[in-house]
Amino acid sequence: MNKIFEVPLYSYERSEDQDRTTPARHPVVIIGAGPVGLAAAVDLAQQGIRVTVLDDNDKVSLGSRAICFAKRTLEIADRLGIGDALVDKAVQWNLGKVFFSDRKVYEFNLLPEKGHQRPAFVNLQQYYFEDYLVQRVRALQQEGAPIEIRGRNRLTAITNHDDHVTLDIETPEGSYALEADWVLACDGAGSPTRQMMGLDFVGRVFEDNFLIADVIMDAEFPTERWFWFDPPFNPGQSALLHKQPDGVWRIDLQLGWDIDKAKEKLPENVIPRIRAMLGPDIPFELDWVSIYTFQCRRMEKFRHGRVIFAGDAAHQVSPFGARGANSGLQDVDNLCWKLKLVIDGAASEHLLDSYDTERVFGADENILNSSRSTDFITPKSDISRLLRDAVLDLSEQYEFARPLVNSGRLSAPCSYVHSPLTSTDALDGPARSAPGSPCPDVPLEDVFLLPQLGDRFTLLTIDAEAPEHINESGITAQRLSLSCADDTTQALRERYMGAAEGAVYLIRPDQHVAARWPTFDDDLVRAALRRVIGKEHDL
Amino acid sequence: MAEHQLILTPNIHRADDFYAELLAAHDGLDKTESEALHARLVLILANHIGDNEVLSQALAAAQPSVPADDDRP
Ligand SMILES: Cc1cc2nc3c(=O)[nH]c(=O)nc-3n(C[C@H](O)[C@H](O)[C@H](O)COP(=O)(O)OP(=O)(O)OC[C@H]3O[C@@H](n4cnc5c(N)ncnc54)[C@H](O)[C@@H]3O)c2cc1C
To answer: How far is A380 from chain B, CA to nearest CA, in Å?
Structure first.
């Protein structure tokens, strides 16, 4: 077994809060040190907010779980200071192969668009992602940032009040109480916070089981994603093979519904299955095995007064399309700048309701996509299997059928076009950067665009005049001036200008476009700024 | 003919020839193979049509028709 699972990353240490007679009050307490809770902690601490993370464990999550991290997550990771660490360690892949029965029906190349700093996807074990975030927390502590992770601190009770939350926490040395102005519940799919608050989590269970195994082998399989429908070594079911760093390979085998989970997990049953898949001559070692039933569901609302849910605690998807951790990181990206404004008094707490609106919309898009993939991979009726097999048969010969093959639609961020924070589009520009959209990256002279944005409001001008700063209702937008004259790759024109001769973009701290115009207009820009912090409701 | 509009009036020139060809395509196939052929055929034709609106109208038109109460004898 891989060592990283066993070493405590944030061992239990007694806190002085445990010795107080009246509970200490913290501005933000985060429940759960998974990828989502840790990312939120780093994001808030970087903005100078005091944050305390509680986790009932003291190690990284067991097994590799998430392995596919999407470009948007890497861009967010750049903002959190761990982008390079992730990409340097991760495996990059572009080629996918699809097999049906005993033959390869086609292969595809992700062909990522040029002119982005980050690749479309990388593969990396979730425990590295968590490890790098913990290292980042340690670095922030060195710099004096008020951020703390309390290992083996288990939340056992929670009460929501009008202006704060009270928490009961169990530790190896007994229990203590805390108060928090705000609580972020990032405690995973089984969220004890959600259960203690008696909140719903409705959706769909897929009546199927998947054996998920990480195996270590030296084999020189290429760095590709191989997906099998109905292969000879797992008849009637599906299989996936995908590479991770350190010679670790992810294997997914669909097992069906009526199985004995405990028995299927035994090495003497797992090993022959994997041998049948890899071939008799390939030596391998089992690193981690688990059996999952997949679900697609979400809470009705993600904000409940002073308790805000994010990541798997708020929504859960089947892993086809890698939308779990990736979407949880988008929650963090969306929430933290809003919470910062509310804590600073620059926005009212109603701004946090837009987190609910925007991320519920995102969750629904992810649930829709991953439900469709699951329905294609595991057809639930004779006719859906018939049509599925017809698509696969045709895909071998005819290109038209390939877009219908659905082994996962890889995670992409949604646009907040219908959000109350988004202004009406006033530029005849490209659709991909219309208000609501996540900003597409662009190569500039020796840097990329996205790292120049983030953590603040930006007024991006392209061949347009504007003041260097706009102060409005307690927030500041800072100008970033670019010109198509320097745009040697044409990416800026193609992604932000289209046929327009000039453009002014208002960009949120999470790098989504809030508004855009052909020229700078003081009144319109101020109105859009008020709208994006929830202070303009008339238009 | 209006765009985005499913054609539900006669549109195949030699209708009898087409129908005979459709039947002949199933010669020698058992029920499972015939069903698979139909599934492939639907996908090929749908791709040829391409227009999502027309496809939705075709799916609706193909639903089993339920006679309204007042039409019943
Ligand atoms: C087989 C598999 C493959 C996957 N593949 C991908 C993929 O390729 N890409 C992707 O994006 N996602 C993938 N996912 C999903 C991904 O693993 C999850 O979405 C992600 O872990 C969610 O992160 P989280 O921080 O919300 O929750 P978790 O990672 O579940 O973290 C929750 C934390 O809360 C703590 N906690 C729980 N209860 C308490 C309590 N009472 N008090 C204090 N702390 C508590 C837990 O100890 C834990 O550390 C996959 C999942 C599985 C199972």
So the answer is: 16
